[in-house]
Automatic annotation (TrEMBL):
The keyword Transcription regulation does not apply. Its cofactor is FAD. Residues 220-320 form the FAD-binding FR-type domain. Keywords: 2Fe-2S, FAD, Flavoprotein, Iron, Iron-sulfur, Membrane, Metal-binding, Oxidoreductase, Transmembrane, Transmembrane helix. The keyword Signal does not apply. Pfam families: Ferric_reduct, NAD_binding_1. This is Putative ferric reductase. It is found in: Membrane. It comes from Actinoplanes teichomyceticus. GO terms for cellular component: membrane. It is a multi-pass membrane protein. GO terms for molecular function: 2 iron, 2 sulfur cluster binding; flavin adenine dinucleotide binding; metal ion binding; oxidoreductase activity. PANTHER family: 1,2-PHENYLACETYL-COA EPOXIDASE, SUBUNIT E (PTHR47354:SF8), NADH OXIDOREDUCTASE HCR (PTHR47354).
Length: 447
């Protein structure tokens, strides 16, 4: 008989609520500030122009917030997790795109109405002003980046190509700032307005440089990561063991991931997010990857002693976000890597159930390690092997409930292929598992 776990609530995650409240307050204060500055600047030549100016101010704010999202600030990442930040990054990108289309269109209409000329004539007149031309170029680049980021286009691009396209965002920001400085009436209206915008841009760009450049460079200079061993786990899966100096000072937790580069064995812009497949122990790190991309395929050829450049750690897929004393860990395919690390985490207390979904038993990477860890902590491990094409559906609500009758009283961690993760999350909603108890890792990145 399976014992049913009582829904005991944990309290150690309260600081996260304070951080989240502060972040929400920051965003709302900036939205309010933009509205105040727009009002203080006074009306434009006509109502259409005034609306166009408001759209432009919100476009600038959205671009600054987008920079903060892609800066991958540790405080924000720990509070929300990279998956949620990536979702916000996507929706903010859509907002930026629509504002980048609406702002010039409305401004152009306002000029045409004020001067009593046709839209082509107004466009020709505005095109002769270099700051306006910079804004138009920035808007065009925004549309290109967003168009290549929609799912239909994204599926046709490799991760490396998608990453390279997103580098255009930095050029967009430069052109947008120049356009605002030289053309923005609300920017020049008052010293307070200029101070606000310069302060916001300095904060956003500074956060980006710190999060994406300065901190990673300092950490890599401190730890000097090197390949210690390369171990083939199966025909298409390999583990890379990494050592370095003072790894006990690296703020990594089980369930998190890094962006990995291997200088000399790949191009600098070729970078992949690989989760730690073992809990950090202060002496070494381990990643386990399946050969599906240009970077992961070459991992088995890495020589011992090769330099490693890591950016991170990232992700809130850790025990810090637990709400309940008992846990379910659900893995699919190579998504087992952070799940295996979580199972080893000494901070994961309480009863644990592990569900490992694979097509066949021979595809179950790290299964021996999972069994050993499950035995050591008296966890239940279920290997769910079978092909979806044959009708095997282990994650329907009924089957989930049969495997874990007390699932609503547990935290649920899910990592695997997107289709599997989507199916599990849908079943958890139908079972009315509270969303705050559900934690998913889809290996998506903001920027």
């Amino acid at each position: 008989m399976i014992a049913v776990t009582r829904a005991r609530v944990l309290t150690f995650n309260r600081p996260l609520r304070v951080t989240r409240t502060a972040i929400v307050a920051f965003v709302l204060c900036n939205v309010l500030a933009v509205q105040v500055l727009w009002t203080a600047a006074g009306p434009a030549r006509n109502l259409t122009g005034t609306i166009g100016r408001l759209l432009g101010l919100h476009l600038a704010l959205a671009m600054a917030l987008q920079l903060l999202l892609v800066a991958r600030l540790p405080v924000v990442d720990r509070a929300y997790g990279m998956d949620r930040l990536t979702g916000w990054h996507r929706w903010t990108g859509h907002a930026v795109c629509w504002l980048a289309l609406a702002h010039p269109a409305v401004v152009l209409l306002g000029f045409a109405r004020y001067d009593g000329v046709s839209l082509p004539a107004a466009a020709a007149a505005l095109a002769g002003r270099p700051p306006v031309l910079l804004g138009v170029i920035a808007s065009g680049l925004i549309v290109v980046v967003v168009a290549l980021s929609v799912r239909a286009a994204r599926r046709r691009l490799s991760y490396e190509a998608w990453h390279a396209v997103h580098l255009l965002v930095y050029l967009v920001v430069l052109l947008g700032v120049l356009h605002q400085v030289y053309e923005g009436a609300a920017f020049r209206a008052h010293p307070v307005a200029r101070g606000y915008w310069w302060g916001l841009w300095a904060f956003a760009i500074g956060a980006l440089l710190a999060g994406r450049l300065v901190v990673p460079m300092l950490r890599n200079a401190r730890h000097r990561l090197r390949v210690a061993a390369v171990v083939a786990e199966s025909d298409d899966t390999v583990s890379v063991h990494i050592t370095g100096r003072a790894l006990e000072r690296l703020p990594a937790r089980a369930g998190q991931f890094f962006l990995w580069r291997f200088p000399g064995h790949q191009r600098w812009w070729q970078v992949n997010p690989f989760s730690l497949s073992a809990a950090p122990n202060g002496r070494s790190l381990r990643i386990t990857a399946k050969g599906v991309g240009a970077t992961s395929v070459r991992l088995r050829d890495l020589p011992v002693g090769a330099r490693v450049y890591a950016e991170g750690p990232y992700g809130a897929f850790t025990v810090a976000h637990r709400q309940r004393a008992a846990t379910v860990l659900i893995a699919g395919g190579i998504g087992v890597t952070p799940i295996r690390a979580l199972l080893e985490d000494p901070d994961l207390t309480g009863h644990v159930v592990v569900l490992y979904r694979v097509r066949s038993a021979r595809d179950a990477v790290l299964l021996g390690e999972l069994r050993a860890l499950a035995d050591a902590r008296r966890a239940r491990l279920h290997l769910l092997a079978g092909r979806s094409a044959s009708g095997y559906r282990p994650f329907t609500p009924d089957r989930l409930l049969s495997l874990v009758p007390d699932i609503t009283a547990r935290d649920v961690y899910v990592c695997g292929p997107d289709a599997m993760t989507t199916a599990v999350l849908a079943s958890l909603r139908r079972l009315r598992v509270p969303s705050r108890q559900v934690h998913a890792e889809r290996f998506r990145l903001a920027g």
